[in-house]
Design brief:
heterodimer; A: globular; B: mainly beta; 5-stranded antiparallel β-sheet; 11 strands; about 0% helix; about 55% strand
Chain lengths: ~110, ~110
Amino acid sequence: KAGVTQTPRYLIKTRGQQVTLSCSPISGHRSVSWYQQTPGQGLQFLFEYFSETQRNKGNFPGRFSGRQFSNSRSEMNVSTLELGDSALYLCASSLAGSSNEKLFFGSGTQLSVL
Amino acid sequence: EDKVVQSPLSLVVHEGDTVTLNCSYEVTNFRSLLWYKQEKKAPTFLFMLTSSGIEKKSGRLSSILDKKELFSILNITATQTGDSAVYLCAVVGTDFNKFYFGSGTKLNVKP
């Protein structure tokens, strides 16, 4: 069974640009979450999607958005990039996103904003 | 505000040593606590704890939860260089699909 797949693995952008990251969950998983990981802050929750609906959102500005498609694949978009957006963006999936389920993580997209 | 605090932030030991990693939390309506190991990019699951006092074990790793004192520990005995990684603690509360992560403990096991 294939794991969580994130593309691209690496991205280099300049300030003001926008970026779209993609995540394909494990087959059969319908919940997809996104996390931002920076050296000082650890993993910070961005949002969670289930059946194409955003069920929860973290404390990030509106420049961060996402969506989920009918096949459970998810995309995350960051507009008007800032230097502080440089981070590892991790996607995680689970069957239904309930509290008794563990998250399965992808290898992340390393975003560098210059 | 919900939060998870891990200590120490980093640790250097030699092979064969035993280490204890700590995770304390303040999360509304606690549901579960999870430990993950992050070696390169993708965190991999170690344990899920929901009940106090019940130790979970997997080989040389074990973990226990204290819901009264709001903390968990992760023990690694007879450490090996392959145990070198960042160990992450995550807690789920009222928002059942939102995990609060600590900053992690970076463990370096020297030969």
